[in-house]
Amino acid sequence: MKDERRSHQCHKDGCDSEAIWQMFVRMETFTYGGNWLPLTGKTTVCVCHKHREAAVNAFLSERNLNALERSFKRENLQMPGPWGYKFEFADLREHRVN
Q1: What's the pLDDT tens digit per position in 27-60?
Q2: Do 42 and 67 touch, CB atoms closer than 8 A?
Q3: Do the Cβ atoms of 29 and 77 come closer than 8 Å?
Q4: Residue of 39, 37, 35, 15 lying closest to 27 (CA atoms)
Q5: Are the beta carbons of 13 and 45 closer than 8 angstroms?
Q6: Which helix or strand (DSSP H or E) is residue 85 part of?
């Protein structure tokens, strides 16, 4: 049985607050043929207000960026530079059904 409260909890380890933000990542890349490609990634990361910066830092971790780079290479895309990420947070409360 699914724990309804846990499904709405902040994803930061040890945090018991309600998750109210879902993270999106916008980036731009190029194919190796030189074609520009804007991308928007809807993440599964949902956090409270206090842990938005921690979510961004986790995305920018060396381990995560290495995994992202492998994915880009499989798709024949160039890895965006470190300055090429824009993070946005959508308010989950606008979409929740009580």
Answers
A1: 999 888 889 999 999 999 999 999 999 999 999 9
A2: no
A3: yes
A4: 39
A5: no
A6: strand 85-91
DSSP 31: B
Return d(Cα 15, Cα 6) in angstroms, integer. 11
> Which DSSP letter does residue 86 get?
E
Tell me which residue has tokens 């980036």. Answer: 27
Cβ-contact 79, 60 below 8 angstroms:
no
pTM of the model: 0.82
Within 10 A of 98 (CB to CB), how many other CB atoms are there?
A: 3
End-to-end CA distance of the chain: 18
Q: Name the token pair of 11.
A: 């994803």
Classify burial at 63, counting beta carbons within 10 Å of its beta carbon; exposed 0-12, middle 13-18, buried 19 or more.
Answer: exposed
Q: Which residues contact 31 (CB under 8 A, 6 or more apart)?
A: 37, 76, 77, 78
